[in-house]
Design a protein that fits this description.
The chain is 50% helix and 15% strand. It is α+β, with helices and mostly antiparallel strands and 388 residues long. Helix 2 (41-51) packs parallel to helix 7, helix 4 (70-79) packs across helix 6 and helix 10 (219-239) runs antiparallel to helix 11. The longest helix has 36 residues, at 152-187. The radius of gyration is 27 Å and the shape is elongated. 25% of the residues are buried.
């Protein structure tokens, strides 16, 4: 919940301090925590259960209690994705504590004000999506009223009461695990610049003909297909050591530290989807190069190129850019050409040695102009046959 700072001068005293606005009618009646007219009592109980505290402060009162300006409080709350609430008495001790913590990090010099706002925004965006999923997909399946006359809210309260501490602990565990993995990648960076602008392999995997499917399938069927695709993709990317950046319904974006890992993921995605008769065909585009990372997302020419290659990739096939192909050749994951591979195999056989074990094969495709990126030369990526 954010604030409406258009009236930040309201209640300003002669000493420059911002006093709380006049008490509401409910406060004048001696009940400072009374719900606003129209509030559902059960919904308020559920909110209080989840937040662990009662509504106590207006935005002005919360900002003053936290010792921060209304302007900064507004920036923090809006960054976290909370709607403006005017001067409703809807904030809790937890809201005050969150403001104190963020402001304290700024005052201690650990974060700049801009960085603190970015922390609030990235956390808010990530947890908002998680909360929506948990309510839409998780709680709805557990809160069907067991008896006629019971409301969903009445069933939800005891379920949330039981699940909340377990889900909270699990969220913290997963966050710490992800933080440890991300910190490990950062400390291995060659220099400070590489911590932000890094060389990564980036891949897009896109379901073919998804727009046509949306016109033919029922909403529930379409939702199940998208969920199955995202789940399968997320599992494969994680299992092979990549990182799922985001899902876009019919498309997933992932990244890997090396081209070999990204190539393995791409081909495994195509192989897995093609073996599932319920899934549309898949196409994948990948590029390798410098990538800018911000708030868990990736940006830059490399990402744009991977996206463009996806749009021109054949069905159930993987296209990579020339930098990606060169990286596979450099690391020994693919031969520069089949002729070279044949020569190496013949030489190894003559010497009684094992030939190089290449994992992938690369086939140069036609050069073509790509909007906004000039002329590119895609390479078709396939698995190399055993013994090939």
């Amino acid at each position: 919940m954010t604030v409406d700072d258009t009236g930040s001068g309201e209640g300003e005293g002669v000493d420059g301090r911002v006093d709380p606005p006049p008490l509401s009618a409910s406060s004048e009646r001696g009940d400072p925590l009374a719900p606003e007219p129209g509030d559902d009592p059960l919904a308020l109980r559920l909110e209080q259960l989840i937040l662990g505290a009662e509504r106590r402060y207006t935005p002005f009162q919360a900002a003053r209690s936290a010792g921060v300006s209304m302007e900064l409080a507004s920036r923090f709350w809006r960054a976290m994705g909370f709607a403006d609430i005017g001067q409703a008495k809807a904030l809790t001790e937890a809201d005050v504590l969150a403001l104190r913590r963020l402001a304290g990090l700024v005052e201690a010099g650990l974060l700049s004000e801009a960085m603190a706002v970015q922390v609030a925004r990235s956390t808010g965006q990530t947890t908002a999506r998680l909360a929506e999923w948990q309510i839409d997909s998780f709680l709805e399946g557990l809160t069907e009223p067991p008896e006629p006359g019971m409301t969903r809210t009445e069933v939800t309260y005891p379920i949330v009461e039981l699940l909340l501490p377990e889900l909270e602990e699990f969220l913290v565990y997963v966050w710490r695990r992800q933080l440890a993995a991300s910190a490990g990648r950062v400390v291995q960076a060659a220099d400070d610049e590489e911590m932000v602008d890094r060389r990564l392999a980036v891949g897009f995997a896109d379901l073919v003909g998804f727009t046509r499917l949306t016109r033919r399938m029922e909403e529930e069927e379409l939702g199940e297909l998208v969920e199955a695709f995202e789940t399968t993709a997320a599992d494969l990317v994680a299992a092979r050591g990549g990182r799922l950046i985001k899902t876009l319904g019919d498309e997933v974006l992932y990244a890997a530290d090396d081209a070999g890992t990204a190539a393995d993921i791409a081909l495994l995605l195509v192989e897995t989807m093609s073996n599932d008769e319920t899934m549309p065909e898949l196409r994948v585009g990948m590029a390798f190069g410098t990538v800018t990372t911000r708030m868990g997302d990736v940006f830059g020419t490399t990402v744009n190129l991977a996206s463009r290659l996806t749009s021109i990739a054949p069905r159930d096939a993987v296209l990579v850019d020339s930098a990606f192909a060169e990286e596979l050749i450099r690391t020994g994951d693919a031969p520069a050409s089949e002729a070279q591979a044949a020569e190496e195999a013949a030489a190894a056989e003559k010497e009684g040695e094992e030939p190089p074990a290449y994992r992938f094969a690369l086939q140069p495709m036609w050069q073509r102009p790509v909007r906004g990126l000039g002329v590119v030369e895609p390479w078709l990526l396939t698995r190399r046959a055993v013994g090939g």
